[in-house]
Amino acid sequence: xxxxxxxxxxxxxxxxxxxxxxxxxxxxxxxxxxxxxxxxxxxxxxxxxxxxxxxxxxxxxxxxxxxxxxxxxxxxxxxxxxxxxxxxxxxxxxxxxxxxxxxxxxxxxxxxxxxxxxxxxxxxxxxxxxxxxxxxxxxxxxxxxxxxxxxxxxxxxxxxxxxxxxxxxxxxxxxxxxxxxxxxxxxxxxxxxxxxxxxxxxxxxxxxxxxxxxxxxxxxxxxxxxxxxxxxxxxxxxxxxxxxxxxxxxxxxxxxxxxxxxxxxxxxxxxxxxxxxxxxxxxxxxxxxxxxxxxxxxxxxxxxxxxxxxxxxxxxxxxxxxxxxxxxxxxxxxxxxxxxxxxxxxxxxxxxxxxxxxxxxxxxxxxxxxxxx
Length: 373
Description:
Blueprint: H1 3-12, H2 18-29, H3 33-40, H4 52-64, H5 68-79, H6 83-86, H7 95-100, E1 109-115, H8 122-130, E2 138-144, H9 151-161, E3 166-170, H10 182-186, E4 194-199, E5 203-204, H11 209-219, E6 225-234, E7 239-242, E8 249-251, H12 254-258, E9 270-272, H13 289-300, E10 303-316, H14 327-347, H15 351-372
Parallel strand pairs: 1-2, 1-4, 2-3, 6-10
Antiparallel strand pairs: 4-9, 5-10, 6-7, 6-9, 8-10
Helix pairs in contact: 1-2, 1-4, 2-3, 3-4, 4-5, 13-14, 14-15
């Protein structure tokens, strides 16, 4: 978490004195989060400790202190659900029980998970995968981008429980900092015809999600993907809200996908591997991977939407690389993404879509210049 982001969080706790804010900010950003927690625990502080801002501040300081279970309990209390207690390794079925459900002829699924310093989150993500009830075989592939916070030790415990189903790719150097897209780098390791995705700080909440998506894709081989509805968990205020308002089922409009008027989120997707032809890109290109995938899937074939299936939770947390960006930075990445996509779509015969994206970029850049003038 950056100093600026933590400062904004501190100012949301309106009853804190300037002296306490400064002390907490200094201790937390200089690597002393436990001292920051001690300062906030002072009984003489006259602070309303029942507000979302107070809960969020406590949670993030506990996160910085490496007290991940306590941080998750604070978040559970904020949203009124014991999610972190339910999604644990102890509550998952055994490997034999999972594999006993599989049926011959059912198309298999590779579940791809990318992680970096997700020690507070990764147990919930993996528990949500191994809690899936399906007749379709599945493997889980986790790519750990050189985590330093204890994520690796947690992954080892999951490997011991699921030695045949879990494959962990451990990297000695962080490749994200070198400009490599984690999900792009994970896809070549998939061995099954279908791929589902979820970053290590998101998680699934419907135990039939994988089965429903795999069944539909198996019976509709021309479909490029199936997506579903989801919840968004905003950790800054403890709010859990629906991701999309539309709860109907049906094929999504191709042009909305190709032109990225609608974005498909990785944690909601299951895709047919041989129909997804992802272009290679570097993070220095400033493109948004979810938007690139959306456009490519739209061009590859029909994408079916399960609006009544709330199958996953997207976590909006201030430790992510995207959520804390300001509006201008986010808009610049949208422009970069569309400029990146335009020539690729033209090469794939989507000429009109390519032209629309370029027009969108010109308008967006003109608006940005006007606001800056």
